[in-house]
Automatic annotation (TrEMBL):
It comes from Paenibacillus foliorum. It is found in: Cytoplasm. Keywords: Aminotransferase, Cytoplasm, Glutamine amidotransferase, Repeat, Transferase. Homodimer. One of its GO terms (cellular component) is cytosol. GO terms for biological process: carbohydrate metabolic process; fructose 6-phosphate metabolic process; protein N-linked glycosylation; UDP-N-acetylglucosamine metabolic process. The gene is glmS. The active site is at 363 (for fru-6p isomerization activity). This is Glutamine--fructose-6-phosphate aminotransferase [isomerizing]. Its EC number is 2.6.1.16. Catalyzes the first step in hexosamine metabolism, converting fructose-6P into glucosamine-6P using glutamine as a nitrogen source. Its main location: cytoplasm.
Length: 368
């Protein structure tokens, strides 16, 4: 075990630090010299997605959170309506599926029973199935029509980190691929996106190097009874993922909220000292998020802000801050989730928990 963990105390920390490499590997061979995205494994799929008029993204846990980001990206770049669903709910709600529906199932292990069952149900109803999975030999890969492999390598820690960012990257690449096919993406945004994707591994390295503040904050929340994660736009699904990560391994209760929705209930739970992690990476929603931060601050919250380098004025609105490198706003989730992974890791470390094998949870759940 220790040999495999190398210099790291836990697999989770090792896997967090592998992300620059796993992002590079997931991009490898999928972007050509003209900045076009192609998937060698989709060679047999040429034109297969031309008629698609509706997409569902179906998954569980962390993979579901990747799907939430994925749905926004696909809609934005292709204008095809996309809906994300939790696999254990999807097939019981009689979704409208036709032969022009594409169902994208996302699964690190490729063996999750709920996701596999949703795949089978969608196939019975005539949908085309694309699997995004880290295990190309898995049941989900075998039963799908098309497979995009995330190249995260084996993930040992129960709490998923590198598989999640690889899933996000797979969604960015697939969205560009679909947009190329349907000619819905302007040249300028296309090249900015590809350039931005290629820069991500180095930017993640930077986030990992500047983790000191996040580490101190994580240690400070170990006694907290409850925490809130807030964000707008793509920061909201990232908040959901940060909150899940924290619950999984620290056992501290937390909730993620769309920042604008706080005032409709959750604000009642903010007391003096309640830790709030506020994501503010969306520049077009920045002012609105800052005013939501002020609302929780005014009720005594202790706020850790996560924003883009340069937004120094946020320092006046929060108690602690973590800057992520500037990127296209659409790509920020890959950078913003890294400090959240570290917060959950270091909070759990301070609590002395079994980080790689949290209580009551399994890496892959093969029962429904
Ligand atoms: C389990 C794991 C989670 C994971 C979920 C879905 O609950 O503990 O970390 O996100 O299953 O797993 P999958 O392999 O389908 O991505």
């Amino acid at each position: 075990d220790q040999v495999e963990k190398g210099q790291f105390e836990h697999f989770m920390l090792k896997e967090i630090h592998e992300q620059p490499l796993t992002l590079r590997n997931t991009m490898l061979g999928r972007i050509n010299d003209r900045d076009e995205v192609s998937f060698p494994e989709l060679a047999h799929a040429a034109g297969a997605f031309k008629d698609v008029d509706k997409i569902f993204i179906v998954a569980c846990g962390t993979a579901y959170h990747a799907g939430l980001v994925g749905s926004t990206i696909i809609e934005k770049l292709t204008r095809i309506p996309v809906q994300s669903d939790i696999a254990s709910e999807f097939r019981y709600r009689d979704p409208i599926i036709t032969d022009r529906t594409l169902v994208i199932v996302v699964s690190q292990s490729g063996e999750t029973a709920d996701t596999l069952a949703a795949l089978h149900e969608s196939r019975r109803n005539g949908a085309k199935i694309l699997a995004i999975t880290n295990v190309p030999t898995s049941s989900i890969a075998r039963d799908a029509d098309y497979v995009i492999a995330t190249k995260a390598g084996p993930e040992i820690a129960v709490a998923s980190t590198k598989a999640y960012t690889a899933q996000l990257l797979a969604f960015y690449l697939f969205s560009i691929y679909l947009a190329q096919e349907r000619q819905t993406l302007g040249k300028e945004l296309h090249s900015e996106l590809v350039k931005g994707l290629k820069t991500l591994p180095v930017q993640v390295e930077k986030v990992l190097e500047n983790a000191d503040e996040v580490k101190l904050f994580a240690e400070s929340i170990k006694e907290a009874k409850s925490l809130f994660f807030i964000g707008r736009g793509l920061d909201y699904p990232v908040a959901l993922e940060g909150s899940l990560k924290l619950k999984e391994i620290s056992y501290i209760h937390s909730e993620a909220y769309a920042a604008g929705e706080m005032k409709h209930g959750t604000l009642a739970l903010i007391e003096k000292g309640t830790p709030v992690i506020a994501l503010a990476t969306h520049m077009d929603l920045y002012e609105k998020t800052v005013s939501n931060i002020k609302e929780v601050k005014a009720r005594g919250a202790h706020v850790m802000g996560i924003t883009v380098e340069g937004n120094v004025e946020l320092l006046n609105a929060v108690d602690e801050i973590c800057f992520i490198p500037p990127s296209l706003q659409l790509l920020a989730p890959i950078l913003a989730v890294v400090p959240l992974q570290l917060i959950s890791y270091y909070a759990s470390l301070a609590l002395g928990n079994d980080i790689d094998k949290p209580r009551n949870l399994a890496k892959s759940v093969t029962v429904e």
